[in-house]
Structure formats: structure tokens, C-alpha cells
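Board notes, transcribed. Complex of a protein with magnesium ion.
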Amino acid sequence: MYPTPSVHSTALDPATKPLVQVEHLTRVIATRAQRTIILDDVSFSILPHSLFAINGPSGSGKSTLLNMLTGIDRPTGGKVIFAGGRHVGIVFQFFQLIPTLTALENVLLALELGGGGGLPRGQWRRRALSCLELVGLAEYPRRLPSELSGGQQQRVAIARALANDPSVLVADEPTGNLDSKTAHQVFDTLAGLVERGKTVIYVTHDRELAARANTRIELLDGRIVAQQGAVAMTEVAR
Ligand SMILES: Nc1ncnc2c1ncn2[C@@H]1O[C@H](COP(=O)(O)OP(=O)(O)OP(=O)(O)O)[C@@H](O)[C@H]1O
Ligand SMILES: [Mg+2]
């Protein structure tokens, strides 16, 4: 079995300590000709066990913000604070599976690269299989990505993101490349992880999927223009 994360309530208690705190985050891209502010003083908190949506129009800064959470990009100003250390699994819009590796091998590769999430090497295969099982793909460990549907490929990618047992999963348009029915199925898989104690942060253009979040922020031109749910804003002296 998957090393069982305890089952937590998804109810968000505002007194709960944030898992992620984003404080006055700014990202500026400067060229010789001009200075473009892509993120402008963005602050919010993410509570543990959130299903947290980031939405907003194209170019509003959603991917830039996610890349700050995963450490792919660095802020120009401000900071991101992870309680208990940064340990994040990433799910990409275009799956980014290795085409020559089977579903199981793709998950095993993440264990290899991530050091096995503290598990001894002898248990990696079992862990990888249980991650595939968790996303409903127990039957297909030996299939190559090209032998799987888009939704199945994205579920392999979710299994891979779970391999090292991160507390946070970050997904940029995880269903953006799927038809609507498959998108909802894959989203159900992601949302189900919250009940297993994970925090899922996702970007979506889809209104219905955004509405399923228990917390949501909306960006426009690099600023938060709306928020819903238990976003405990941190008051930080500037
Ligand atoms: N390296 C870069 N150099 C210059 N501009 C950039 C760079 N990266 C992003 N931008 C600009 O920053 C803005 C925000 O980009 P970002 O990719 O975060 O948007 P997004 O909300 O994810 O959009 P989409 O929904 O289309 O994915 C855009 O106007 C984009 O053109
Ligand atoms: Mg984007």
C-alpha cells in the first residue's frame, strides 16, 4: 500500500497555521529598453489541506507565481515561506513524461531523482506501484505514454509528482490539454489527494474547476484582484 498519509478533515480552520506564506512577491523583468512588472506585491497564505486555485486571464502572471512556489523562478522582491521545508510535487500541462519509459519507470525516475522521499531503495518499486494505484492506473504499469490516453498520461504525471510524498502538489493547467470529461476525471484525482492530506495548488482557466477550489485567488496584470475562501492574509510590515 501507499505509505498512508493520515486522513485529515478538509474543513479549513482560520486558526490553522499557513503551510505556505507568500509575502509581497514581486517579479520584474528588466531589459535595456524597459522594465516589466509581472507580479506586483502579491501576498496570500495557503492553509494545509487546501484545494487552492489560481485563476486569471492569459498573461496575468499565474505561471510566474507558480514558478516562485516551486522554486523554478526567483522573485525580484518579497518571499515565499514554506512551513516545514519546501517539498513540492509538480504536474505540468503537457504531462512531460519521458516517452521511452513506461508508466512505472516514469514514477521510479522521480524516486531516483528525489532520493526516494526517505524510503530505502528496495521499497521504491512498491511505492511507485502504489502511486499508480492511487491515481487509478494499477493495471498499466508497463505501458509507454504513447499507449495511454491523455487523461491516463496526466494521471501517471500525478503519480510521479506523488512519488517522493510531498505535502504540496503544484499544477499549472493540469487539465488544460484534456477534453472536458477527461479534465473532470483528472481533476477528481487531484482533488481526492486533498482528502489524503495533500495540499493542491492549481492554475486553471476553467470556471467550473476554479469553482471547485476551497480557496481561490484571481490575478489580473500581476495583482490579486479577487479572493474567495479562507485566505488568511498576512499582515506584514513593509
Ligand atoms: N521571461 C520573460 N520575459 C518577458 N516577459 C515575460 C517573461 N515571462 C513571462 N513574461 C510576461 O509576464 C506576463 C505573465 O506571464 P505568465 O506566463 O505568468 O502568464 P499566465 O497567467 O501564466 O498566462 P497563461 O494563462 O497564458 O499561461 C506575460 O505578459 C508574459 O508575457
Ligand atoms: Mg501560464
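The longest strand covers residues 35-46. The pocket of adenosine-5'-triphosphate (ligand 1) is lined by residues 29, 36, 38, 56, 58-64 (CB under 6 Å).
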